[in-house]
Amino acid sequence: MYSEEDHIKKASTLIEKRNYKEAKLILLELIKKAKNSKINLGVYYLLFLSFDGLNEIKGAKKYLEKCLKINTKNHLVLNNLANIYLKEGNIYKAEKFYLKSLENKNDYLIAIINIAIFYQNTGRLDEAKKFYLKAIDMSPKAISIYFNLSRIDKNFISEEKIKYLADLMKKEKIKSIDMGYGFFLLAEYERKKNFFIKEIDYLQKAHQYVFNENLNKNNQTLNYWQNTISVKYDKLSFINENKRSELINFNPIFIIGLPRSGSTMVEAILSAGDSIVKNLGETSIINGAVVSTHNELKKKENNRIDLDLINNKVLKLMSDRNFLSKKSKIFTEKSLENFFYIEVILKIFPKAKFINTFRNVEDNIFAIFQQALTKLSWTHSIENILKYVDNYLKIIKYFVEKYPDQILPLDLEELTNKPEETSKKLYSFCNLKWNERVLDPNSRKDLLISTASNIQIRSSIQKYNHEKYRPYKEFLKKFSHEYTWINKD
């Protein structure tokens, strides 16, 4: 017979192995058996970890709040509550709880990095820099912090720091992800000197280290994008189509396309007008709902989608993040991979509109390759980027022809060269009222941007630069026999 201590130990082991569901059941049973007995903070915190691992935000928040009742000064609890408020889009409470965490433990490195990232994503760059520098003082070998700071201060990475980082990468045992960030910094330094061949070499090494950091997961998701949904997007069949949920009353605007194509700029412009447009960011709600409920899609012969399952999953995910409690039924969602799921989305949200952002495709390829898009498995080699882009071009063409009234193609060059004219066209398509403020999205104090384009969006709209990626075009010519859309000249 297991004692309470045995149950806690077993749940902890399961959490370490990422078996969150079984850990959750064990802990809930333990609480049930305890009845009126006092539950210690550790049990509630393990329950938070279980719910959080399952991406069940409401449950995670509930057990953190129970922890907080037991100890109002626990820095771990306060930091994790801040993370949850951020997921809910409550940036004021997120900031408050990050700072409370640091009040109770001013050398808590995780909270220091979190508040730095928070200030970076909300445009308070001086505050972000202050905390990044504090984090570097505490952890001078954590290269990821140097990388983050370099994004907001282009002068931070000097020749001296490059020599220090290069030496660190040679002599110290550095985590794979930090090695990746180190090579990204070395690549950027070579780019500044116009040494493009050396830059490409460092970028290849950077991406390999980043991919290897989560090798199994990256291989699984890469296979899904290349061999599952990219093959089945136009062959899906649907059951339970007649079951309807409250989602049919929403007017969502899905921004789709490739990274680095102007999607963040469009998201910011849409959230800067008079209408209340909730900016959900990149939630991956649709992809998460499909993958978690339809594992059988991986089987070659199975193309069936149960819309009742998807509806329920999306409803739960939106409810967990408090996205259903808003008065406005209009929101933007910027998980760019949603171009695979246009058919599914229109079944769930029949009033949905799609903004397909795009730019010169060859420029786009290198804009992606130069970025540390660590969560996107397909971005870590030129070959995989080309396969993904090829699928995107084919799939978006199919859906634009099928649903021309629901999809607005929006060219980044057109947006940057004619911002007023193009933004008016965008607002008209979305049935929103345009005003001049939409061209200055940074006027919104609650604008949270967590993508690589964050810093660019904080400045005025710059005209499209045709020369920026010209030196790299030669690297693509060897692939022109595989992809007809690559320029052979």
What tags apply to this protein structure?
single chain; 489 residues; alpha/beta; Rossmann fold; 23 helices; globular
Structure described in brief:
This protein has 489 residues and is an alpha/beta fold. The protein contains 23 helices and 7 strands. The protein has helices at 4-16, 20-34, 41-53, 57-70, 75-88, 91-104, 109-121, 125-138, 143-152, 159-171, 176-192, 196-213, 215-227, 229-232, 263-270, 285-293, 307-320, 342-348, 361-369, 382-402, 412-417, 419-429, 454-457, and strands at residues 237-239, 251-257, 278-279, 304-306, 330-333, 353-358, 407-411.
Description of the structure:
This protein is α/β, with parallel strands linked by helices. The protein has a domain at 220-456: P-loop containing nucleotide triphosphate hydrolases (Rossmann fold, 3-Layer(aba) Sandwich), CATH 3.40.50. 56% of the residues lie in helices and 6% in strands. It is built from 23 helices and 7 strands. The chain has helices at residues 4-16, 20-34, 41-53, 57-70, 75-88, 91-104, 109-121, 125-138, 143-152, 159-171, 176-192, 196-213, 215-227, 229-232, 263-270, 285-293, 307-320, 342-348, 361-369, 382-402, 412-417, 419-429, 454-457, and strands at residues 237-239, 251-257, 278-279, 304-306, 330-333, 353-358, 407-411. The strands form 2 sheets. A 5-stranded parallel sheet has the order 3-5-2-6-7, with helices on both faces. Strands 1-4 form a two-stranded parallel sheet. Helix 1 (4-16) packs antiparallel against helix 2 (20-34) and helix 4 packs antiparallel against helix 5 (75-88). The longest helix has 21 residues, at 382-402. The radius of gyration is 23 Å and the shape is globular. The N and C termini lie far apart (75 Å).
